[in-house]
Amino acid sequence: MNSFQKKESKRTLFSPVSFEEAPSRPPSPPKKPPRKICGTNYPLSIAFIVVNEFCERFSYYGMKAVLTLYFLYYLHWHEDTATSVYHAFSSLCYFTPLLGAAIADSWLGKFKTIVYLSLVYVLGHVIKSLGAIPMLGEQSLHRVLAVIGLSLIALGTGGIKPCVAAFGGDQFEEKHANERTRYFSVFYLSINAGSLISTFVTPMLRGDVQCFGDDCYALAFGIPGLLMVIALVVFIMGSKMYIKPPPKGNILAQVIKCVWFAISNRFKSRSRAIPRRQHWLDWAAEKYPKQLIMDVKALTRVLFLYIPLPMFWALLDQQGSRWTLQATKMDGNLGFFVLQPDQMQVLNPLLVLVFIPVFDFGIYRLVSKCGIHFSSIRKMVVGMLLACLAFAVAAVIEIKIYEMVPSQMGPQEVFLQVLNVADNEVKVTGLAANKSLLEKSIKPFQKTPHHFKLQLNAKKQDLHFLLEYQNFSVYTEHFLEEKNWYSLILHGNGENVSSVMVKNVGNKTTATTVRFVNTLQTDINISLGKDTIISVGEAFGVSPSRAVERGEYPTVYCRTKDEDFYLNLGRLDFGEAYLFVITNKTRQGPQAWEMEDMTTSKMSIAWQLPQYALVTAGEVMFSVTGLEFSYSQAPSSMKSVLQAAWLLTVAVGNVIVLTVAQFSGLAQWAEFILFSCLLLVVCLLFSIMGYYYVPANPEETQGPENKQLSHIQGNMINLKTKKTKL
């Protein structure tokens, strides 16, 4: 998740704006001055708000970091389904701020809204964590709990999003505006700190801790849920210190009513001889104040520029979905540290903290010294181009991965890997309907097994194999089913040759998995940890794949009915599938012969760094600049509405991703290229729209009071100038 979507507005989304004179109220009793922090002008109450925000952001981004892998490996959804649900959840998180802001401004106020929706938030985490405990029910129940939990979390996080930052700003008096500005800096720092730490820690809780015999998703969801409980408790602890402004009305509702009245009044006037008006919003003049109409006009001019923006978010938000899925196909071993696929997301908040000062104090100033006018719209265009380039790089990486691993199996196709553990070379010929499907000589104990893609004549078929070994020729028959991996294990003792066919389950989790082939004439029990015992039958028995903790395994204890011995398995890395053949070939005691279980990509996960750097640089240029530009161009009374519109562009962007994921049917590299091209077209459209955009006069964006103040200040400056001349 990008960092600037995390930065909530400095005020409630729909701050109250009164266009009529409010009735007089009796004077309020004098208020007790708020407690300060160490003698400063900072209210003590903001400490509770900042801690609350850190814990809440840790909770949200920690849970979201492992969400895609949870869908893929725990709920066993297809990659497209996992991507669609991930972005549906993200989209809902940016639609619900409308509801939260409306509740806060029109009904409960910010404090009660935060408390009540935080309870909903906690309930969502509890349900989500329960859904990750395998023993609680069938897979269908886990999926239902996941959907319910995510819906409640989306309502909770989205509902409090527009309230928390604004509630912190409410704690300051107007005379302490400078301290309030610094508070928002600390507030945003807490957001990034929570995101940065949780995105790094939560994947470790998932992958490095084993529970229920697999990755511990229950813990990975439970700890963020606990942080949300802490966030709520800390927030309530400061209740008596808070300044709690009452709800005063919803400006968004006034804007919608004004626009609707203008449109309906325009169509009604067609039947009457009424002179045309300069602007379509002028048709609201019969009911709404002139100032409101002028503000809505300024607002619509900016909203028109928002039309192309969702496509940028569609690319940016795929860091947690498609890019994480790409990372699962790469080697996370960096030598000094092994990265989990979902830990790569930590690069975004980390690079944001690095790039903001680099751009503000370096690149922008350098461009300015070169005499280039780098306007806000130009910065946003460059940000879009960088995101396009990032996805082009991601497509190249995906193509390289695609070349390193076997292609996807089509109808009536199977993959077959052949392992020769005999004491001599074996020639293998695969026959189906008197047609040769493969013909290959396999050397004994080859490090890398031979892989073949076979085309069957039906979905299920018996395949005949001719095995030629020294002076022997043997026919064997094995049953195969389409779209599956199989291992054909050959073994011979100098007098005969035979084979065993094993259906591969494959590594369907991000955990390290092992399996064993036993060539000894006795059963073996292999101890790979306190609770991991693998039994392998005698005479070429094959064990099922088992997940184990990664690390060094120099002395693995093995027991047979006649003797005990130890095997050296070496280092088992994250996300790899290992096949060990237990043999006594050297007659010096049993040994473990390591082979590749199946072809996997050996491309380092570090190759994702360029695409993360490009897309984060694009985010810094697009998101920060876009917010600044929007606020500068919108009237003061409409800035909260504009923040709501900005969040909606994020929601629409996620809808675009889930739509493409469900209906495109493209290979992943082709989908990356599609998104890159779409954003390039949108970037061109936005450039044209920006070229013809006429920036608003600063006076147009000020309220009546500010305009009057500016006029007075201007007169004072003129008076001072005259005195100086005299």
TrEMBL record:
Task: List the subcellular locations.
Answer: Apical cell membrane; Membrane
Compositionally biased, Basic and acidic residues: which spans?
Answer: 1-11
Q: Which UniProt keywords apply?
A: Membrane, Peptide transport, Protein transport, Symport, Transmembrane, Transmembrane helix, Transport
Pfam family for this entry, one: PTR2
Give the highest taxon in the source lineage: Eukaryota
Membrane topology summary: Multi-pass membrane protein
Residue ranges for the region (Disordered) are 1-36
Q: Which residues cross the membrane?
A: 58-76, 88-108, 115-137, 143-164, 185-205, 217-238, 298-316, 346-367, 379-397, 641-660, 672-694
NCBIfam families (alphabetical): 2A1704
Subunit relationships? Interacts (via extracellular domain region) with trypsin.
Q: What is this protein called?
A: Solute carrier family 15 member 2 isoform X1
